[in-house]
Amino acid sequence: MNKIKISPKRFGVQRLLVTGDPLYDMRNYNLVIPTLHGLIDYKQVAGSGVDIANHVSTFALVLPILLDAPKEIDSKQSNNGIEVKLETVKLLYANVGYTVKPNVAGAWSYMKSIDNMNEPAIMGEEVETYALEVSIDWPTWFNYALRSHPDLYDELERDVRNLPIEVISIPFRVERIFPLIIAHSLAHTLLNFHSLYTGGERKDLGELVLVTKDGGGGVAKTRTFIFDAVMGGNGVSELLYNYLNEVMSDALDVMLRRHKNQRPGTALWFMGEPGDLILGTWPRCIYGNVALSRLWLLKFLAIHSGMSLQSWLQGQPIKLSFP
Ligand SMILES: [Zn+2]
Q1: Ligand 1 centroid to residue 207 C-alpha, Å
Q2: Is residue 228 situated within a structural domain?
Q3: For residue 28, how far is its CA from the centre of ligand 1 (angstroms)?
Q4: Is there a single domain that holds both residue 304 and residue 183?
């Protein structure tokens, strides 16, 4: 349970001598404080222009931190640098604070630290659990992709150049941004589409994306972890490992259908609608739903299958085997 301290700054001026417990006037959403000078109400003291919230929503910000090298149980590999593993992992499940959002229109949500703002603390818990890891060796993948799509970099750059919103700050380097977006988009695909095969819920799994850079500022490797969000595991990531190909095929089917209905060049065409990659349900994305692209994920999966997105859009049958 988190504690929200309200410091009555405006009351400080006259150093009120509070004589009893503050009362909350439910009907008028007002706080009434009994003092030596009589009852003082918060709305009156705070003046006009203040909206009083009758409740606030708090969301815990929990970051998983990998503590040890994972221990492999089983693995599957493709010939283009993608490896999928089932493994046990040791994580520090670290609660770094809360966002607090009042239910008042236009109000900002703010960050509440654990302990105080000047000395923030982390509430950590060590968790040993099961995880599915998708790792991609990017130099190998790009080598493979460029053989069939020699102008891939230019094509990816064109995708973002004319978007109505800036999804990626330009100039950017495709070989650096594309791997991050694919690693994160893969995580959300699995989080959004696993339920049918695993029987699990969104909150049963957590996500973690790790990136290894190469010497030149590009990406050498990305590691996407989808882990059981409880100590000892809950069996969901193991089922996900066993049904990975089915989950990915179903997700591809849905995303491709929606992609066809989206007007090219729009933000939704690039990112996808909520429910594809954007996580709308609690627990929210720990990376704030950034670096996601349905378009690029579809291109990635098409190239992985020895096809192109264009050929899929023209109706060629989909043969996805993942990894
Ligand atoms: Zn995420």
Answers
A1: 7
A2: yes
A3: 40
A4: yes
The answer, as to whether pTM is greater than 0.85, is no
Q: How far does the centroid of ligand 1 lie from the alpha carbon of residue 184, in Å?
A: 6
User: Quick one: 142 and 287 in the same domain?
Assistant: yes
How far, in Å, is the centroid of ligand 1 from the Cα of 109?
A: 20
CA distances from 302 to 20, 91, 137, 253, 322 (A): 69, 33, 18, 12, 11
Query: Structural domain of residue 41, as residue ranges?
Result: 9-46
Cα–ligand 1 centroid distance for 10 (angstroms): 40
Q: Helices 294-304 and 174-193: crossing angle, nearest 10°?
A: 90
- Cα of 53 from ligand 1 centre, angstroms: 30
> Of 252, 286, 293, 253, whose CA–CA distance to 272 is shortest?
293
Whole-number Å distance, alpha carbon 32 to ligand 1 midpoint, is 43
Q: What does the pLDDT profile of the chain (323 residues) look like in tens digits?
A: 444 444 444 444 445 677 888 888 878 777 888 887 788 887 777 776 666 677 788 877 888 999 999 999 999 999 999 999 999 999 998 888 888 888 777 777 887 888 777 777 888 889 999 999 999 999 999 999 999 999 999 999 899 887 877 666 655 788 889 999 999 999 999 999 999 999 999 889 999 999 999 888 789 999 999 999 999 999 999 999 999 999 999 999 999 999 999 999 998 999 998 889 988 777 778 888 889 999 999 999 999 999 999 999 999 998 899 99
Would you say residue 239 lies in a domain? yes
Instruction: Report the number of distinct structural domains present in the chain.
Output: 2
Distance 86 CA to ligand 1 centre (A): 20
Q: Alpha helix (H) ranges present in 149-221?
A: 152-161, 174-193, 195-198
In a domain, 97, yes or no: no
